[in-house]
Amino acid sequence: MNTDDIKYLIEKYNNQTATSDEKMIVEQWYERINGAEFTENQFSEEKVKKQIFQNTTSRIDHNKVQREPKKIKLFYSLFFKAAIIIMVLLAGVYVYLKQTGRDLLVTSSEQKKTKIIPGGNNAVLLLADGSQIILNKASDGQIADQPGVKVVKTKSGELIYRFAGNTNPKSTAINTVITPRGGQYHLVLVDGTEVWLNAGSSIKFPTAFTGSDRRVDVTGEVYFEVAKNKAKPFIVSTNKSEIKVLGTHFNINAYDDEEYQRTTLLEGSVEIKSGKQTTRLTPGQQAIIKEKTEGIKIEKIEDLEAIIAWKNGYFQFEKADLKSVMRLVSRWYDTKVSYSGTIPTKEYTGKIPRNVSVSKLIEMLAYTGIHCRVENNQIIVNQK
After folding, report:
1. Could you count the other beta carbons within 10 Å of the beta carbon of residue 337?
2. What is the pTM of this model?
3. From CA 151, how far away is CA 139, in angstroms rounded?
4. Among positive and negative, which fits the CA dihedral 56, 57, 60, 61?
5. What does each C-alpha distance from 194 to 147, 188, 224, 249, 264 come to in angstroms?
6. Three-class SS state of 323
7. How are beta strands 158-163 and 185-188 bridged, if at all?
8. Span 8-30, pLDDT tens digits
9. How many domains, the chain?
10. Are 315 and 329 in contact (CB under 8 A)?
11. With 321 labelled, which of 131, 147, 272, 367 sits at a CA distance of 20 to 30 A?
12. Do 179 and 245 have their domain in common?
């Protein structure tokens, strides 16, 4: 029985088309895999095979005694089931080891040597008076008072600005949220605009929008879902551009270590100004700016979900060069990346969850053609 047979059996179970015997086989597998705590020593391949063989042959012997009248037919039926159970269990153990980072090729001592871990919900709130609140360590509930506004951290790890009264305050204060390398955060401004910050990013904003517009400044990568307000356009400033919107969804990638600044529109309409040039985007378009003096280049983006994959928990790259991919990794895992030998000039495409261990990350990068190793708490890209 090969891997395709195993996949077909599980697919039948999930589609509710499996027979009662097939359901029994799959359920026995899940019971064995999900209900146990495993250790490294339990999982030598020979031990697994021996244990599964003993369990299945024991079940065959037991059923032979209980159902002697159907001896020959039952023996072959159970033998077939035992073979399937062995194959499925071995596949399940393999998947389990892979998913939990217990690859048989990566020892526990190797895992313990590295301190490189994936990023998480980490950010710092800078208040107008200069005080700082480390958001991932702050208690849930109200964490600050600003002029006419309450600042609340939710149980799910969001930061929300709410009016303290029924009217818009006359005075305001400037706050800043900063995510470190290896951090991300979600906040809701007082007008209802939602903001997601990627690793190594920041947003500076007034606690209330009292003027004729809603103006914020950003660095790094930020995704916006802007609350509609025709009377007050929403303006985002970076070091290379100014984006003006009324209500829309868009992503800005404005890292200093990236050659280009990219603004991608997912929904609505935005107007972008850089230097002396102003242009308007429609959904599915991306504005690319290298320097203000070089103007704005417009490209069509086929896969918009790839642009905000970071927000949804993935690295996703399409025909990207090696250094671009590894900059994503370096920011999120907050680690240095170095290169051994000549850097390939190839293009890479892939999609990888951002919550995997560094050993699993390296394994998955290898599938895309990028070969790395961990040494002295940094990732080294090999020439292979």
Report:
1. 19
2. 0.70
3. 12
4. negative
5. 20, 5, 6, 10, 16
6. helix
7. parallel
8. 666 665 666 666 666 666 655 55
9. 3
10. yes
11. 272
12. yes
